[in-house]
Amino acid sequence: MKIMVTGANGMLGKDLCPILENIGAFVIPTDIDNLDITDQNATDDFIQSIHPDIIVHCAAYTNVDKAENDSENAYKINCDGTRNVAMAANKAGALMVYISTDYVFDGTKNTLYLPTDETNPQNVYGASKLAGEKEVIKNCEKYYIARTSWLYGHNGKNFVETMIALSKNPELKVVDDQTGCPTWTVALCRAIITLISNQKPYGIYHTCGSNYTSWYGFAKEIFKLTNIEANLKPCTTDEFPRDAKRPKFSAMDNGGICPDWRESLKEYIEMRG
């Protein structure tokens, strides 16, 4: 099985490529240094030349706050770039897996979001990723859209490491009125493999940690598992203003495809050493 991975140098891609190799796949990693997905002709030429069986599209503009004032680039990468990959994948007869986000929702629902629920992004990042979803659906016959959330991993800046680094502060305030599903990159990789291996029906899936918490609750669990004593205090979103509006409640129903977020966090901490 020949699998092409875009965004291979990102936090998710760095975990995904070796995990795919471990299951026997021939992995073709790509990133901006060898493939500019915003160049339609270059993307098509590259994909037709290697003729992959599967393309896992991890490449994305992911700076949520910066996107508010940089919407042109966010859409160029997340929408136009995704369209280029989707069209080329379809032409090559490849299955496409597109990594999307919980930020396609507005956060006004009080129960877990289902893949069939109405989308209504509240920030540029979420809107650009939703535009990418639509390009995949429009241009690729064989696809999985994998929405994930609150991603952390060993190969990139993430909430877990930030909390540990800040734990010695005299006081550490963390938002307690935003609720979502923390997701470990490795758990997401395993979910992607489940999608492509079990031949599930094409469509949209939620590939996030099971159950949900607030950022404050996430931080509490981090300190519990690391035996760190920190002066952790809950605060409101209004006390910690950001450029991009975040959904208050973006927890998603994953259909059992990923384990409980606390179980994954424990495994992450143990591997961290």
Description of the structure:
- With 273 residues, the protein is an alpha/beta fold.
- 46% of the residues are buried.
- Helix 4 (124-139) links the parallel strand 4 and strand 5 (143-148).
- It has helices at 11-22, 40-50, 71-92, 124-139, 159-166, 185-197, 215-226, 261-272; strands at residues 2-6, 26-29, 54-57, 95-101, 143-148, 151-152, 172-175, 179-180, 183-184, 203-206, 213-214, 232-235.
- It is built from 8 helices and 12 strands.
- The model has no long low-confidence stretch (mean pLDDT 97).
- Helix 1 (11-22) crosses helix 6 and helix 2 runs parallel beside helix 3 (71-92).
Brief summary of the model shown:
Keywords: NADP, Oxidoreductase. The protein has helices at residues 11-22, 40-50, 71-92, 124-139, 159-166, 185-197, 215-226, 261-272; strands spanning 2-6, 26-29, 54-57, 95-101, 143-148, 151-152, 172-175, 179-180, 183-184, 203-206, 213-214, 232-235.
Topology:
Blueprint: E1 2-6, H1 11-22, E2 26-29, H2 40-50, E3 54-57, H3 71-92, E4 95-101, H4 124-139, E5 143-148, E6 151-152, H5 159-166, E7 172-175, E8 179-180, E9 183-184, H6 185-197, E10 203-206, E11 213-214, H7 215-226, E12 232-235, H8 261-272
Parallel strand pairs: 1-2, 1-3, 3-4, 4-5, 5-10, 6-9, 7-12
Antiparallel strand pairs: 8-11
Helix pairs in contact: 1-6, 2-3, 3-4, 5-7, 7-8
The overall pLDDT average reads 97
The helix content, as a percent range, equals 25-40%
Number of strands: 12
Radius of gyration based on Cα positions: 18 Å
Strand-residue proportion: 15-25%
Please give the order of strands in the largest beta sheet: 2-1-3-4-5-10
Poorly predicted parts:
none
Distance between the termini: 33 Å
Shape: globular
Q: Give the biggest sheet.
A: 6 strands, parallel
**Element-level helix/strand string:** EHEHEHEHEEHEEEHEEHEH
**Number of helix segments?**
8
Structural class: alpha/beta
